[in-house]
């Protein structure tokens, strides 16, 4: 238990450090700006006609209050932390007066659902194919699928998504290309609604799977082809252990450990891909919220989504770190 | 150097394909220096012309020649990628080698920072940087930001190489001969780290170009400077797909996919060349 406790303390420290540095970074970035967010919002709002100068002055005051831009730098920094901890980023300007936080909360299940599903499929399929390709190295079918997966691997999410969108939305229009579910359906546990959810999620999820699968495939294949030459595998082969047992118990299980670490490390990137994919398919998640916030110049929304996504990714990484000892006995008993 | 190149071209099919693709695209991008019109000019040509003998890849709704736009666009995109790669290599090498060689407290501090940076989601941070910079966002600022976010994986890799070099005999000789730490790192260790730097540079280049495409597709860069993503951004702005101007979007996509494929093939075959184990398994030993 001692080894596990030590592991836990270290992971917990890392977890808090990521959040601390990430939130501080978000604060520093907003301070580096040559543009004053208050002036920007004021000009955005006064665009629609002449406004009384006194009203503008009041608006300026209110916005400074709202954005937490009053007082010295340290006061602002501490105030920012207060907002993050309370989860209160003020009302969104583009959909006034809805609070930013409730926008995020209503968008979050979409992103979490899409990402979790896509990530599980990607990780399982990529590792399985990679392990098989590393173990049965002369199989033509595996070689071909490997070549296809690797050719897709370097292409950015937007391009893959765009090609899928063109293919299944315009050239052969069989799948919906926009939104999270059919507009006229009420969210319910009905067959129609769930069917519509799945159909709408197919293309975004497929994009994320195609983008992500390559790196798992490549690293798993090279891990497995290294383990195959290890002494314990050779010994098992000589001892007459069946090849399927060698594959699952002797090879794949060992190779999965670094892949789980890799899963935790890749979450930040995967989230980035999801942001782009959601925007492309108009999927009602956090990523679309962020990009819409940028287009509309909504300061509190952009800052809120960025900060919360840093925290959310850190939490997800921490959860994976907690699963790790269940699979690696060395950490458990260390 | 030339002998290695010749052998790779002759015996490694992936390298040969990757080399030809990348070289072809590079030459195509180079051609923009001889373009008949400035790449920023709009409404210079009849808009929406399909591909023809006069306009090979057609013209855009903004009256630009798709062929010459693409030439400049690929050049600018590659320039961005290479800038990010060079900057982030400097960071990765500095952090990785110092961390690996000095060890102890330095190592712990630098690697904790490293692991923390890895866990931060890049895209939201880059989007926030764009959002606060707005019109003062130029491509060098974007490149510097991307470089600051793109060094961590490779710093760890370089650290592990330096870690093993530190215990080697020649390092001890160098210490006893009175060489300073920077001297040892640069004159003794750097040559061994070079292959790793080169390999990670290829992957980083692919990542950086992908980032540039992603951001400029959304319009989050200098939209008046032609880039591959920027072309798709303008095509989307003009509803090119719905209007049936497929050539405006299809050719940039094909170009970017070919470029990625070429670079990726180069990256994996160079990695194979550097790592002898995979060469052995290729020979079937």
Folded structure, characterized:
The complex is a heterodimer of chains A (334) and B (285). By secondary structure, chain A is mainly α. Chain A is built from 13 helices and no strands. Chain A is globular and about 90 Å long. Chain B is 75% helix and 0% strand. By secondary structure, chain B is mainly α. Chain B is built from 13 helices and no strands. The longest helix of chain B has 37 residues. Chains A and B meet through helix 1, helix 7, helix 8, helix 10 and helix 11 of A and helix 4, helix 5, helix 9, helix 12 and helix 13 of B.
Brief characterization of the structure:
By secondary structure, chain A is mainly α. Helix content of chain A is 78%, strand content 0%.
Describe the SSE topology.
The complex is a heterodimer of chains A (334) and B (285).
Chain A: H1 2-32, H2 37-46, H3 53-67, H4 73-86, H5 100-135, H6 140-152, H7 157-171, H8 191-227, H9 231-238, H10 243-280, H11 286-295, H12 299-327, H13 329-333
Helix pairs in contact in A: 1-12, 2-3, 5-8, 5-10, 6-8, 7-8, 7-10, 8-10, 9-10, 10-11, 10-12, 11-12
Chain B: H1 2-11, H2 13-30, H3 66-102, H4 104-118, H5 122-133, H6 139-149, H7 152-166, H8 169-176, H9 181-217, H10 228-237, H11 240-243, H12 246-274, H13 276-283
């Amino acid at each position: 238990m001692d080894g596990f406790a030590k592991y836990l303390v270290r992971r917990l420290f890392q977890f808090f450090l990521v959040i601390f540095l990430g939130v501080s970074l978000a604060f520093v970035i907003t301070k580096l700006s040559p543009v004053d967010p208050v002036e920007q919002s004021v000009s955005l709002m006064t665009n629609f006609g002449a406004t009384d100068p006194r009203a503008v002055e009041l608006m300026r005051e209110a916005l400074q209050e709202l954005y937490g831009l009053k007082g010295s730098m340290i006061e602002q920094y501490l105030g920012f932390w207060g907002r993050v901890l309370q989860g209160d980023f003020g009302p969104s300007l583009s959909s006034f007066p809805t609070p930013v936080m409730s926008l995020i909360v209503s968008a979050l299940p979409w992103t979490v659902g899409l990402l979790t599903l896509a990530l599980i499929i990607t990780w399982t399929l990529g590792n399985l194919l990679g392990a098989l390709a590393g173990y049965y190295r002369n199989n033509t079918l595996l070689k071909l699928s490997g070549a296809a997966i690797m050719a897709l691997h370097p292409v950015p999410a937007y391009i893959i998504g765009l090609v899928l969108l063109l293919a299944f939305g315009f050239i052969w229009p069989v799948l919906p290309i926009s939104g999270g579910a059919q507009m006229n359906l009420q969210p319910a546990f009905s067959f129609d609604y769930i069917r519509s959810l799945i159909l709408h999620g197919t293309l975004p999820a497929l994009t994320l799977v195609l983008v992500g699968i390559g790196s798992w495939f490549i690293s798993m294949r090279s891990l497995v082809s290294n383990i195959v030459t290890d002494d314990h595998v050779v010994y098992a082969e000589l001892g007459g252990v069946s090849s399927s047992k060698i594959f699952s118990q002797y090879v794949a299980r060992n190779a999965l450990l670094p892949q789980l670490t890799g899963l935790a490390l890749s979450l930040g990137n995967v989230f980035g891909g999801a942001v782009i994919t959601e925007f492309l398919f108009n999927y009602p998640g956090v990523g679309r919220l962020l990009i819409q916030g940028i287009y509309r110049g909504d300061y509190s929304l952009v800052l809120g989504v960025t900060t919360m996504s840093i925290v959310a990714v850190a939490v997800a990484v921490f959860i994976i770190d907690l699963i790790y000892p269940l699979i690696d006995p060395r950490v458990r008993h260390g | 150097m030339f002998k290695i190149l010749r052998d790779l071209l002759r015996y490694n099919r992936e390298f040969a394909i990757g080399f030809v693709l990348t070289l072809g695209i590079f030459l195509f991008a180079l051609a923009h220096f001889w373009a008949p019109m400035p790449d920023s000019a709009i409404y210079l040509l009849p808009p929406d012309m399909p591909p023809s003998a006069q306009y090979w890849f057609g013209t855009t709704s903004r009256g630009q020649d798709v062929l010459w736009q693409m030439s400049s666009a690929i050049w600018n995109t590659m320039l961005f990628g290479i800038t990010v790669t060079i900057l982030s290599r400097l960071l990765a090498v500095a952090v990785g080698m110092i961390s690996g060689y000095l060890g102890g407290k330095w190592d712990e501090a630098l690697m904790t920072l490293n692991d923390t940076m890895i866990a931060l989601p890049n895209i939201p941070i880059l989007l926030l940087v764009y959002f606060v910079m707005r019109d003062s966002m130029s491509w060098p600022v974007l490149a510097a930001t991307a470089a600051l976010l793109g060094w961590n994986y490779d710093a760890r890799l370089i650290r592990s190489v330096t870690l093993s070099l530190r215990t080697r005999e020649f390092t001890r000789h160098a210490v006893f001969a009175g060489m300073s730490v920077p001297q040892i790192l640069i004159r003794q260790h750097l040559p061994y780290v070079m292959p790793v730097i080169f390999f990670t540079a290829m992957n980083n280049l692919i990542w950086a170009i992908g980032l540039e495409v992603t951001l400029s597709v959304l319009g989050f860069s200098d939209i008046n400077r032609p880039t591959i993503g920027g072309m798709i951004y303008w095509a989307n702005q003009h509803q090119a797909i719905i209007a049936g101007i497929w050539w405006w979007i299809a050719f940039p996509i094909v170009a970017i996919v070919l470029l990625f494929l070429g670079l990726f093939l180069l990256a994996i075959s160079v990695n194979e060349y550097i790592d002898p184990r995979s060469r052995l398994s290729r020979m079937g030993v």
